[in-house]
């Protein structure tokens, strides 16, 4: 009774869908989180009767044959790359990226990672870091006696000092774009790593070659749409139950067979 | 040998296959672009050596693919494409060109539009569609024209097969066309939507119950046959 195994693949798929949805809902308020979507694909087909099989002595052939599928598998869990809405925070080091691009940060082991979470902070040395304390590339240090910081759309960081009217340029943030953002490997903590699928990182000045721009005092919201996720959850749950029903039916048919003798 | 048992058995093995197709349809309830499959039974009639006698056995002889349009689900993805109406996308797999209705594409590391399995989507001329790296705005119109920042770059061709019975299923929501493939103009490409599986859970459940009951009837027939033969053996044995 192959139906048992086929329904089991269906249950596993719906289960995975619930996992993806719960992850999305859990990250409803995560800064710059992109919703994930589970994509499914059917499994191999079994040739019960090959098309073209000769059917009778006078040479008629079967036009279609019989192909029976063996269930479903997860093809991908892809990131939905879309601009989230922005919320005003007023923080001088809160940056929302409008358009494509990622901030590059350096992990403690020296490897680069990429993030769209622009809730930046200052560490004890005045260096601009992420919430987890990873340094942002390029290094920009804010002196202690700064009165105010202003970051423009191109990522240029200006500092105002007491007693000076002219702002002083401290440095400029870069944005990194990728040919295929969906191919980035998520590391957690809002960080991503370059992979073979994402293509080579392409750092450059904001606003150029399709890269986005910065907006100071704003943060990008999570792009999770709760209504969408809940309808998906209902579908997944019912789908799971339907597959379970098929298992029950197959089981009862087997039981009927066993009862004969 | 006793024929009734074998007639019932052919029916039951066919029903097991039909349940397999029901199970596959339900398992693919959430598979983008999946089309429902079904099994067609044919009877095989044989004349018996008695006057006017014949026996009919049943066998799964053919399959069909439901061509009904699946509902469209909004995803908002730039490269999520649904086909409204007739037609298939063409993708290039290592085994050759294949047709599909599953339109979840994305540019790969080289900017080539590919499906989740990495097979490239082909344009109407059979070439790959490359999205330039610096593209800001990619629009795909109803006739399949891909425009990058306002300038048309390629056109996704929709195709269909003339003889639908020559369309074979393959893993990965793909179809292999054994017959002639022709371009179609009726289908509309809808950007930002995905076509959901066209499996109707209610219909499948009804089919499942039907299969299950038919299987049980067969079982009852086998039981009765068993009882009948046992009775014959016992009665004849007593007389001997």
Describe the structure.
Chain A is of the alpha+beta class and about 260 residues long. Chain A folds into two domains: about 1-80 and about 225-260, no CATH class; about 85-220, no CATH class. Helix content of chain A is about 25%, strand content about 30%. Chain A contains two helices and 20 strands. Chain A has helices at about 1-25, 225-260, and strands at about 35-40, 45-50, 65-70, 70-80, 85-90, 95-100, 105, 110-115, 120, 130, 135, 145-150, 155-160, 170, 175, 185-190, 190-195, 200-205, 215, 220. In chain A, strands 11-7-8-17-16 form a five-stranded antiparallel sheet, with no helix packed on it. In chain A, strands 12-13-14 form a three-stranded antiparallel sheet, with no helix packed on it. In chain A, strands 1-4 form a two-stranded antiparallel sheet. In chain A, a hairpin with a 4-residue loop joins β12 (about 145-150) and β13 (about 155-160). In chain A, α1 (about 1-25) packs antiparallel against α2. The longest helix of chain A has about 35 residues, at about 225-260. Chain A is elongated, with a radius of gyration of 27 Å. Chain B is elongated, with a radius of gyration of 25 Å. The mean pLDDT of chain B is about 85. Chain B has about 240 residues and is of the alpha+beta class. Chain B has two domains: about 5-65 and about 200-240, no CATH class; about 70-195, no CATH class. In chain B, the strands form seven sheets. A five-stranded antiparallel sheet of chain B has the order 9-5-6-15-14, with no helix packed on it. In chain B, strands 10-11-12 form a three-stranded antiparallel sheet, with no helix packed on it. A two-stranded antiparallel sheet of chain B has the order 1-2. Chain B has two helices and 18 strands. Helix content of chain B is about 25%, strand content about 35%. The chains are: A alpha+beta (about 260), B alpha+beta (about 240).
**How far apart are the termini of chain A?**
19 Å
Model regions low in confidence, pLDDT < 50 over at least 5 residues of chain B = none
The global form of chain B is elongated
Rounded mean pLDDT of chain B is 87
Strand order of the largest sheet of chain B: 9-5-6-15-14
Shape of chain A: elongated
> What number of structural domains do the residues of chain A give?
2
Quick check: average pLDDT of chain A?
A: 89
Helical content band of chain A: 10-25%
Strands in their spatial order, largest beta sheet of chain A: 11-7-8-17-16
Order of helices and strands of chain B: HEEEEEEEEEEEEEEEEEEH
Total strands of chain B: the figure is 18
Task: Report the end-to-end length of chain B measured between terminal Cα atoms.
Answer: 22 Å
> The biggest beta sheet of chain A, please?
5 strands, antiparallel
Helix content of chain B: 25-40%
Largest binding interface between chains: A-B, 72 and 64 residues
Largest sheet of chain B: 5 strands, antiparallel
Oligomer: heterodimer
Q: Return the structural class of chain B.
A: alpha+beta
Regions with little confidence, pLDDT below 50 for 5+ residues of chain A: none
């Amino acid at each position: 009774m192959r139906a048992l195994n086929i329904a089991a693949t269906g249950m596993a798929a719906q289960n995975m869908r619930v996992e993806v949805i719960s992850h999305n809902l859990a990250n409803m308020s995560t800064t710059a989180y992109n919703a994930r979507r589970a994509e499914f694909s059917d499994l191999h087909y079994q040739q019960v009767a090959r098309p073209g099989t000769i059917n009778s002595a006078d040479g008629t052939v079967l036009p279609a044959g019989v192909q029976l599928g063996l269930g479903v598998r997860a093809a991908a869990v892809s990131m939905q790359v879309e601009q989230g809405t922005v919320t005003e925070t007023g923080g001088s080091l809160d940056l929302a990226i409008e358009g494509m691009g990622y901030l590059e940060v350096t992990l403690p082991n020296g490897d680069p990672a990429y993030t769209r979470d622009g809730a930046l902070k200052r560490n004890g040395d005045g260096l601009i870091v992420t919430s987890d304390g990873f340094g942002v590339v390029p290094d920009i240090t804010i002196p202690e006696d700064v009165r105010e910081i202003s970051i423009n759309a191109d990522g240029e960081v200006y500092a105002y000092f007491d007693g000076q009217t002219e702002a002083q340029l401290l440095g400029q943030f870069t944005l990194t774009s990728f040919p295929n953002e969906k191919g980035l490997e998520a590391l957690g903590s809002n960080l991503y790593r370059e992979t073979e699928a994402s293509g080579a990182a392409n750092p450059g000045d904001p606003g150029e070659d399709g890269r986005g721009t910065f907006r100071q005092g704003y943060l990008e919201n999570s792009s999770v749409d709760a209504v969408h996720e809940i309808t998906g959850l209902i579908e997944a749950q019912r789908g799971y139950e339907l597959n379970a029903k098929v298992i029950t039916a197959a089981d009862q048919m087997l039981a009927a067979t066993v009862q004969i003798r | 040998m006793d024929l009734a048992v074998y007639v019932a058995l052919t029916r039951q093995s066919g029903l097991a296959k039909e349940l397999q197709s029901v199970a596959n349809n339900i398992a693919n309830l959430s598979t983008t672009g999946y089309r429902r499959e079904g099994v067609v039974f044919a009877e095989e009639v044989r004349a018996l050596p008695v006057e006017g006698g014949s026996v009919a056995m049943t066998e799964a002889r053919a399959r069909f693919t439901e061509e009904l349009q699946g509902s469209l689900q909004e995803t908002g993805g730039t490269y999520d494409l649904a086909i409204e109406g007739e037609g298939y996308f063409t993708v290039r797999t290592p085994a050759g060109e294949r047709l599909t209705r599953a339109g979840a594409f994305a540019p790969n590391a080289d900017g080539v539009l590919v499906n989740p399995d990495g097979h490239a989507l082909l344009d109407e001329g059979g070439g790959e569609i490359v999205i330039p790296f610096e593209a800001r705005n990619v629009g795909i119109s109803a006739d399949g024209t891909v425009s990058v920042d306002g300038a048309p770059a390629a056109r996704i061709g929709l195709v269909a097969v003339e003889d639908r019975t020559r369309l074979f299923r393959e893993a990965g929501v793909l179809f292999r066309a054994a017959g002639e493939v022709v371009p179609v103009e009726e289908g509309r490409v809808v950007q930002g939507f995905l076509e959901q599986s066209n499996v109707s859970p209610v219909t499948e459940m009804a089919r499942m119950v039907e299969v299950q009951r038919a299987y049980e009837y067969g079982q009852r027939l086998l039981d009765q046959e068993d009882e009948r033969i046992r009775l014959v053996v016992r009665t004849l044995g007593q007389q001997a």
